[in-house]
Amino acid sequence: MRLVVAIIKPFKMDEVKEALGAIGVAGMTVTEVKGFGRQKGHTELYRGSEYVVDFLPKIKLEIICEDSSVETIIDAIMGSARTEKIGDGKIYVQPVEETVRIRTGERGMEAI
Using one digit for the tens of pLDDT, what is the confidence trace for 39-64? Predict the structure, then answer.
């Protein structure tokens, strides 16, 4: 099993969700996060004062899947989240040793 974590722009969430649904992704965890990378934030003007917005709003998706589904999921996220502008985000893939469904005690892929 693998954990696919994607950081994307908030306005791309609906497109990514539809793309993942189309390839059969049954569930995911979505978190509103803030951060920055090479973008380094930006400067805004508020009531005549300039201030720096260091952390930009992003969406973090977490999907647990079979090893064989990783590339399909990555392709779906990249295809639907890409704007070809700075700040499109990142995708990380990590191994998952065990998954347990609390309600039933199912383990492994059955728990997903």
Answer: 666 666 667 777 677 788 999 999 99
